[in-house]
Amino acid sequence: MNEAALKLDAGVADAWSMPLAEIDVSDPARFRDNTFWPFFERLRKEDPVHWCANGMFGPYWSVTKYKDIMQVETSHQIFSSDTDLGGITIEDGNGGNGLPMFIAMDPPKHDEQRKAVSPVVSPENLAKLEGTIRSRVGEILDGLPVGETFNWVERVSIELTTQMLATLFDFPWEDRRLLTRWSDVATATPGSGIIDSYEQKRAEVMECGTYFTRLWNQRVNAEPGNDLISMMAHSDAMRQMSPEEFLGNLLLLIVGGNDTTRNSITGGLLALNENPEQYRKLRENPALITSMVPEIIRWQTPLAHMRRTAKIDTVLGGKTIRAGDKVVMWYVSGNRDEEAIERPDDFIIDRARPRQHLSFGFGIHRCVGNRLGELQLKIVWEEILKRWPDKPIEVMAEPKRVYSCFVKGYESMPVRIPA
């Protein structure tokens, strides 16, 4: 039995033996080791709305079933996203950054700022971007070694999403890997291997702010453009943002455009390798890419959770939630809820209802860039199957996963394209 299997067995034993009250699903080590699944399985069965009094990030409620998550998502009058109340991650202040951003606001300000940046992912703009994405995917895939083991995360997932982000911001091309670094830093905690301290995190986040302030000053004095910086600079809702709010919204757009898509690109290849009959089905019928893309996003669930804070006393799943309580919606658990999704633990690329998942959230905070993420995944797989229709890309070893209970992703994954 390999190391990963041994850890999973140990996780199963822990999950079903420890007292229910002691379960803390926020431990980032469980996500790094991929041993969190049985803990959520137990909570869904025995205590779907679960109080953890001594969590790593303080006391909190876990909401683990699809229908309860939907209740929270559609009740923004009761459950707030506001940064001043804690924000949208289990770690207070939106990942410890303490910066306001539109996803961590309540209406009406949330709606006004979201509307300002939405045109960048409008159907018309996505149609314009499709050719650019396809060209870049082709260049990346054509540059991969054949018959050699390489890191898929670095060579494909990160490179493609970073190029896309640079395009959306009209960011200096030669510096685009700074966007990757800032995205990783924004969601990291000390001990993750990315940063050593919160002081380092703050310093690098401020470097991001300084860099983008130069771009803002250039764009605000120029004619309106079709990039995110220009859209914000020329928007009534955003041109008067404080420096903190500007930086917070930048980090939101960087992380949203980088981490979620990049980890779904990697997770999709891993899922197909773990389910070779599905890979065979895809190669025999590439039209299944259309339904496979949302299935990959459900399967991967690139953001494991979103958090809200109760504004008033209320009842959820039979439990009394007090005003001020931290409420964490575990998308990664809701996407495996068998009461909502048939055979949720199976990866099925031709599901009847593949879009029924929680990975993009729901309601007013639903991911603004969801269609762009889906488009990138679709093109990646179309171009892979054009090049290697009879040679499935092989995952050579267990991937190295991210130390985070927020971003459910990968640091590296060794793969090989058969010669």
UniProtKB/TrEMBL annotation:
UniProt entry tagged with the keyword Heme: yes
Domain of life of the source: Bacteria
Classification via PROSITE patterns: CYTOCHROME_P450 (PS00086)
Record's function text: Cytochromes P450 are a group of heme-thiolate monooxygenases. They oxidize a variety of structurally unrelated compounds, including steroids, fatty acids, and xenobiotics.
Species for this entry: Zavarzinia compransoris
MF-aspect GO terms: heme binding; iron ion binding; monooxygenase activity; oxidoreductase activity, acting on paired donors, with incorporation or reduction of molecular oxygen
Name of the molecule in the record: Cytochrome P450
Family: Belongs to the cytochrome P450 family.
Signal peptide start and end residues: none
Keyword Iron among UniProt keywords: yes
Pfam families hit by this protein: p450 (PF00067)
UniProt keyword list: Heme, Iron, Metal-binding, Monooxygenase, Oxidoreductase
InterPro entries found in the cross-reference section: Cyt_P450 (IPR001128), Cyt_P450_B (IPR002397), Cyt_P450_CS (IPR017972), Cyt_P450_sf (IPR036396)
